[in-house]
Amino acid sequence: MRCKHTAALAILLAFLTGNALIFGEDWAPRRAAASLSVHPNGTLERFSPVAGSTGQSPNGVFWCDYEIGAVTDEQRELRNFRFFEGEQLRFALERAPGSDLYISNTGFIAFMDMSQHFNRELTAHFYDKTGRFLCSKIFRGASLFGFSTSGKSFGAGAGEHFYLISLPEGGTAAYPPADQFSISEDDRRLALAYRDRLRIFSPAGEELEIRTGFTYPRKAAISSASGLAAVIDKRNLQVYSLAGGELLFRRTLSGAYSYRDLEIVDGAVAAGVHYREAGVSKGILRIFSPGGTLIQETESTPKFFQTFAAPPANPAAPAAYPEIPWPFVPFDSMHTVWNYYEQHMGLGSPTSSYMHQGLDIITPIGEPTYAVAPGIVKCVLTTGGAIYWRLATSAEQVAGFSRGWLYAHLIQNSIQVDVGDTVQLHDYLGDIIAWTADWGHIHFVEIEDSGLVWRYNDNEWGITYNPLHSLRSNEEHVAPALEPVFPYSKFGFCLNETSIYLYPDSLYGDIDIIAKVVDYVKDSPWQQPAYEIYYWVKRLPGGETVFPRTLGQRLNHSFDFYASGHYEEWAPLIYKRDATLPPSSWMSMERNFYHLLTNNNGDTLLALSEKSLAFPTYNYADGDYRIVIEAFDQYGNSTRDSMAVKFRNGITALPGGEGEIPAAFELRQNYPNPFNPATRIGFALPQASTVKIEVFNLLGERVATLLEAPRPAGYHEIRFDAGRLESGMYLCRMQAGNFSQTRKMLLLR
């Protein structure tokens, strides 16, 4: 009875304050229903799309069009951008400063700049309706965005805070984190739903904190005019009074019905309900009065989708990687691979790049996407606008770490599931967005995160392995190809970690060996990097192997990219990048993949310390050698090529005699000594050992690690360049097993 009395009081107060609610032909909730429509997945829309637009405000007054220019994995050029108010052209830009955008009901625009997406960084550039630039705001780990109904405030959830930006001034206020948010129509109140709490804020501070009992809220709504706040999870709609936080009514769903969207419009509570069962998806719009009376119910046109029976269980022994179908029909055929796992991605500069953290597959626009494995939906979110919606599922619903499949770049109003839903193998998930005017793509990869809900702002979302190991496919018979790095040299050679390139007939010192390899996955016209590359060295003319077959790289590493917060630094560990050999940036079918083979100690793991590794030509007598490189694709197809080179270090015979095994460990005195700026350090190994050579100043501070890798028995030499150090005495220490020796070195400028 108390709830009924409170509802009646709320209606009376609304009348006394001028916000009359009339239960008749002209009652506001009926007008609210007329302004809303529901999609087949239960999401709501205020007005029908403007014909010919590529973006619009919720009220349909402001809209834009543009052409899609060059694209990369997570960026698009928006060319010839035009902004309209009704039929009036307000301004135009040759190129918009973002890959997607939000438009407010008063004509403010937020361009979403994803140029630093690989660092989880998004920059929102704000403009007014005349094209005047207002401000830019940078967010890290943001996955929650939107303008207020008035169009004068913009909200963004990022990291441990929710940020509210006032326009046009650009002032920013920080609030606690949120899973969902809503801003009142007068911009005076903010509702933040986070886990089991709904918190209401005003300029004076926090007004209310309501315990909802939810694990994960799917949507929140607030209205100062009606004095209401509302929140939904999968099964429950709960509406509260702003007067004291009292629950006014609750409505519960079951079976094939779930809540997907929520708004408070003209004093009415509008809930978007999703019905999904047996190949049918249908949205239902339910309009409630503040007291909980169902005023109106309308249904969308049903959407019918294919259903598939799960294949019989495979009795074969467990493989290293689970076999999964492709996320598109046909499930057992290879689809067009666009961007490869750990592919080198340029940023338009010779010295900046990153590695692609997944597999991109090109599809027709609107292509239905299907689950590759059963599981629980762990997240549904966008990282920067309509084209960045994604979902992830995991077989485990645990509070700790679990793994699951990420499906990115889905059309929001086609997504069939939300957090907490269960999917089965081959369940329809949603449709692919338009990435260009002609095609779309999915970003697909297995990720690892913790929690019952996977949050983009939790510094996790690590990637686990190359999905092509698991995707069921037709046979692939096309081998990679080794292309010349330079017109004069099949392979590339430079002094270690420099841009000093050497001719193949004059190699000296510590060198990096570079191979340009291109591969094609099935019938994809897009060039890919090689999956796996080996190299070895033979002495000429006899052809005996003097450096064994060694793994240069295998593109199957796991990375906690988002935990580190920055993974651009990993790219030059695997690929060469400089002004001479720049990485490809905006995507073309022909690309530059310059594989660095010598930044690896021969195992399948990566460590940033391996950047210092190189091939030591001075460990071999001067003369003729042949470097052999063999490249493999994911399916075992390979190609091999080689080239003759000359080592020229002025060494006619190795210390101790060629092939002689030393009697004891030894760190030899560097030569020359004193030196400026480089010197050579020799050492002897009576048996194969893992060797660590470091340089320290007289304060005991390590200034360089010259070597940390296995080396065979014999005599060896490394080069130390002290170009960045000050003059003075330095200590060189060698460790190999239980052996340790230190020598003094004098740097004189």
Brief write-up:
This protein has 749 residues and is mainly β.
Descriptive notes:
With 749 residues, this protein is mostly beta strands. Helix content is 4%, strand content 45%. Among the domains are: 59-148 and 150-178, Lipocalin (Beta Barrel), CATH 2.40.128; 359-465, Glucose Permease (Domain IIA) (Distorted Sandwich), CATH 2.70.70.10; 481-647, no CATH class; 666-747, Macroglobulin (MG2) domain (Immunoglobulin-like, Sandwich), CATH 2.60.40.1930. The chain is built from four helices and 55 strands. The strands form 14 sheets. Strands 28, 31, 33, 34, 35, 36, 38 and 39 form an eight-stranded antiparallel sheet that branches. Strands 23, 24, 25, 26 and 27 form a five-stranded antiparallel sheet that branches. Strands 40, 41, 42, 45 and 46 form a five-stranded antiparallel sheet that branches. Residues 1-26 have low confidence and may be disordered.
List segments where confidence is low: pLDDT < 50 over at least 5 consecutive residues.
1-26
Radius of gyration: 31 Å
Distance between the termini: 90 Å
Mean pLDDT: 90
Computed structural class: mainly beta
Q: Helical segment tally?
A: 4
The level of helicity is: under 10%
Shape, principal axes of CA atoms: elongated
In this structure, how is the largest beta sheet organized? 8 strands, antiparallel
Strand proportion, as a percent range, falls in 35-45%
| Count of β-strands | 55
